[in-house]
Specification:
CATH class of the largest domain: Alpha Beta
Radius of gyration: 22 Å
Bound molecules: flavin-adenine dinucleotide
CATH architecture of the largest domain: 3-Layer(bba) Sandwich
Structural class: alpha/beta
Helix content: 25-40%
Number of helices: 12
CATH topology of the largest domain: FAD/NAD(P)-binding domain
Length: about 400
Amino acid sequence: MNIVILGAGYAGLRTALNLDHQLREHGKDDAVTLIDQNSYHQLIQKIHVTATSGVHGSEAIYNLGQILSSRQINFVQGRVRTIAPLDREVLLEDGRSLPYDRLVIALGSETAYYNVPGAREHSLPLRTYTEATTLRDHLVAQFSAAAALSDPKQQRIMLTTAIVGGGCTGCELAGELAAWVSSLSKETGAPRSEVRIALLDRNKLLLKQFGPWATREAERVLDQHGVSVYLSTAIEAVEPHMLRVSGGRVLRAGTIVWVAGIRAPNIIADAGLPVNSAGRATVDHYLRVSGQDAIFALGDCAAIPAGADGSVLPSTASYAMRQGEYLAETIFAEIVGRMTRSYEPMKLGELVSLGPDNGVGNPLGMPIIGQPVLILKKGIEQYYRSSITAP
Ligand SMILES: Cc1cc2nc3c(=O)[nH]c(=O)nc-3n(C[C@H](O)[C@H](O)[C@H](O)COP(=O)(O)OP(=O)(O)OC[C@H]3O[C@@H](n4cnc5c(N)ncnc54)[C@H](O)[C@@H]3O)c2cc1C
C-alpha cells in the first residue's frame, strides 16, 4: 500500500514515525511518504519565546532529514496545491504529482481574520517559526527606531504592542513580551517608561476554555507585569499602526499582532471534501473523512467529534499527536487485516505559560497555577523532543 501523509507537524510526523515503526517491525514494505513545505518540524511551545527573546533556531526547529534518517519514510519537501480524490493523487505547487492508496491530511491551520477590514494587511500573525522571527525582528526595529525619536508621544505609539486574541497564544505571547521589554529597551536605548502592551479580546474571558478562575489568574499575573487587558472589545478594523475597536475607540500601536483565531487551509474544501464552518474536514470516529474510504484527516485541520453535543476537539498539539498515534495503529491494522477500534479522545488538559515564571493549566481537569505549570510544560517538551529523535 502507498500511504501519503500531508504535513509534518505534530499529527503528520507522529503518524509517519509510528506507522513506519510498526511496518518495519512486522517486515512490511508498504511505502510511507511524508510531504511538508518546510525542511523542518517546528516545536510550537517555543514559537512565542522565539518571537520575544531570540531562542536559537536549534531549540525551536528540527531538521526533518535528520529525524527521518534512520527511517524508511520517503520525505518530500514541497507545498501541496491540490488534492484530487477521484484520481487519488496529490499535486504540488512545483508541478509534481504523487499518487496514493491512503491519504492522511495533517495540514494544520492558518490564521483566521474573520473578514475584519485591514487585519490581514496591517497585523503580524504568529503561528510559525518564520512568523516568530519576523515578529521579533519587527519589535527590535520598532524599539530601535523609537530610541531615535525625541517626541514621547510618538515614542509611546511606536513602543506599544497590541495583541489581538486572548486565547493561549495571546496570553503566552503577552507574558513573554512583558518579560523581554526591559532588556530590549536597554539594548536599543528605547525609553522603558513609554513601553505599552495591550491584550484585547472580544470575549468576556481570557482563556475562555478554562473558565473564570483562569481568567482571573491570567489577568492578575499579566497586570502585575504591566500588560493592559481589554475584554469585550471587538476589533472593527485594522489600519497601519492603528486598531479601531468597538464603541468608536482607537488604539495606536507600532506593532499589532493578530492571534485571534485559526481556520483550516482552503485546500481541503477546494478538494470537494466536507468541511465545517472553520474549514476543518469532518471525520468519523475512525478519523476517516466523511464519505471517503481512502482519506483520513487529523489535528488542527480536522473537525473531530468531542462529544454528543456536536462540539469538536480543541486544536492542541497534544490531541494532534495522540491522533497521529491512533491513526498509525488504524492504518497498520487495515494493512494486516485486523479490526480497528474507534478513536477515543483522552482529555489531558492544557498548560499555558504567562511569562517565564508563571502559568495556568488544568492537567487531567485539575486547576493549577504558577511554577507547577512550567515544570509540567518543560517535562512534556522534553518527552516530546526525545520521542521524535529516538532512533
Ligand atoms: C504560538 C502557538 C503556541 C502553541 N502552544 C501550544 C502548546 O503549548 N501546547 C499545545 O498542545 N498546543 C499548542 N499550540 C497548538 C498547536 O500548535 C497545534 O494544535 C498543533 O501544532 C496542531 O498540529 P497539526 O499537526 O495539526 O498542525 P501543525 O503542527 O501546524 O502542522 C501542519 C504542518 O503542515 C505543513 N503544511 C501546511 N500547509 C502545507 C502545504 N500547503 N503544503 C505542505 N505542507 C503544508 C506545515 O508546514 C506544518 O508542518 C500552539 C499554537 C501556537 C500558534
